[in-house]
Amino acid sequence: MGARRQGRELALQILFSQDFSQNDRGALLEIVLEDAEPGAAAGQAFADGIVRGVQEHRREIDALIAEKSKNWALGRMSKVDLNILRLAVYELLFRNDIPKNVTINEAIEVAKKYGTEESPAFVNGILDEVASGLPEK
Hints:
This protein is mainly α. The chain has helices spanning 3-18, 25-35, 44-56, 58-68, 79-94, 100-114, 119-132.
């Protein structure tokens, strides 16, 4: 697994943990790394950048997810799916170095690993909606 995939998985775990914890990003990163797969530290800087970006732009990201997710209020989404969407939407909006299709494919793969059986299709559908309104990178 590449460093960026590991970073996305670490970012997901940190974002998910923040929904239930008052710990700061650094403390959560240390906790997540303790239980992570060997070599996961290689994605640490990438994960930290994603988490910081999601935190900085969370209102904008959540508003866009809410707009594109027809019939699904954010509060009804699973926390795993919502945080996968947050990190992917951050990449789509603010990371010009990552092609849209790579972001979407990576989010789907992370959803397969951490979500439910329905998560990959759900994540794909919303991210396709988000990406369709964005210019090519």
